[in-house]
Specification:
It is a single chain. This protein has 209 residues and is mainly beta. It has a single domain, classed as 3 Solenoid (UDP N-Acetylglucosamine Acyltransferase, domain 1). It contains two helices and 21 strands. Strand 20 and strand 21 form a beta hairpin.
């Protein structure tokens, strides 16, 4: 094939940058469903689990020996989702929701861990070091770094006291520890206040442990 054809030129550029070609991205099916292989950039060292769905405008990249492992049944999008692991690891558990809306995860020199069933949406930025526990949530245009969100039920859990930790709102959130059933609202107060999620859901059911 003529190396000057647009398709080949794109393939050469993708390979040079460490990404799969469009054909290689499409060939991930049926195990991984990439809805628009022309717009998805998936690094050669990125591992994507079975049943994951990748919406358009996703960038999954490793640099300088970093690693990115994405579990099974993850939803990447809708909305631009960017994951960059540089000399560090990003590990994303099964059934995680990244989107709708822009989501950016950046691990540089230290790791990001996102537990199964977690949800990140609507413009959030997660920077290392951060641990987002099973079922935890980061919601809205909030930027988090050096946070630990405790594990718990996911957003479908009817009892807010049993849900994973939540950060929501806007602005910068740094160095907080949010336990099960707790929430921090970015941009609402200085210093940041850890509250019970039930404060925002007073009529929700109680479930005995």
């Amino acid at each position: 094939m003529d190396e000057q054809t647009p398709g080949t030129a794109v393939d050469v550029a993708r390979r040079a940058a460490g990404f799969l070609t469009e054909r290689e991205v499409a060939a991930l099916a049926p195990d991984v469903l990439v809805l628009d292989p022309t717009s998805a950039l998936i690094g050669r060292d990125v591992t994507v689990g079975t049943g994951t769905v990748v919406h358009p405008s996703a960038t999954l990249q490793t640099r300088a020996g970093g690693s990115a492992v994405i579990g099974s049944g993850v939803r990447i999008g809708p909305g631009p989702v960017t994951i960059v692991a540089t000399a560090a690891s990003v590990r994303i558990g099964d059934g995680v929701e990244l989107g709708p809306g822009p989501v950016t995860i950046v691990a540089t020199g230290s790791d990001v861990e996102i537990g199964s069933g977690a949800r990140l949406t609507a413009g959030c930025l997660v920077e290392a070091p951060s641990t987002i526990g099973t079922g935890a949530q980061v919601l809205g245009p909030v930027s988090v770094r050096d946070v630990v969100l405790g594990a718990g039920g996911d957003h479908h859990e009817p009892d807010p006291d049993r849900r994973g930790g939540v950060v929501k709102g806007a602005g910068l959130v740094r160095g907080v520890r949010v336990g099960r059933g707790e929430v921090v609202v970015g941009g609402s107060a200085e210093p940041l206040v850890v509250e019970r999620q039930r404060t925002y859901h007073p009529g929700a059911p109680h479930t005995a442990d």
